[in-house]
Amino acid sequence: MTEIEILKQHYETFDEESRLLSRHGQVEYLTTMKYIHACAKEVNAKSIVEVGAGTGRYSVALAKEGFNVTAVELIEHNLEVLRSMLNSSEPITALQGNALDLSQFADGSFDMTLLLGPMYHLFTFENKKKALSEAVRVTKQDGYIMVAYCMNEPTIINFGFRHGNLQYILNNNLLLDEWHCKSEPKEIFELYRTEDIAELDATVNVTREKLIATDGATNYMRDIIDGMDNFTFEKWMEYHFAICERHDLIGASHHTLDILRKN
Q: Which domain CATH number covers 120?
């Protein structure tokens, strides 16, 4: 199977919308939206492009808030779900496209660019650099680029040790030196450490503003989070927001958000 066929099969069977709507998924969603809103306010953003928009959880919400959104998504199934969430009144354009080639957009077309999914599924440094370069290119001067990553250590800890998949990892030769996962397209997700993200950032003309642990410790205790009453969950979010920018904790988060400013 090709990489696109593998992705298509994954997203036709995996309910990403339900994950983000779950209580544990809400931590990542609420955190990402908090920083999107903060950055949008700072630059008075009107136009936002989300590259790799998935089923539209972010794009549709932002369009309903009044932002002029362009949603670019590779997988047709995801686009169909996204479009089904619209009532034709939202200022959103949904297009099929690839993060590696945004040539349909001119340089500096958007106030903000969201790259919240593509880096999960790119497996060569050249492709990662191309996707990041394209995201930066279509962003206006001084605009924000927000890039999401899946992190290495939570996968080793949770998938490998906690859920009993260590032998699978070893048998399939999925480890590089120092316990860095070696992902392949059939594994669906590429995994990063903070130094990998910094290496990519160095290839483009940007300044990092912040690196955020978007779900922090949440996915280590999903059942507990999902079972919290409203008061306890509100307190969990207070705690999470208080520590999600701490550099000593970011690499242990399942997901991170790299917030970049175009120079």
A: 3.40.50.150
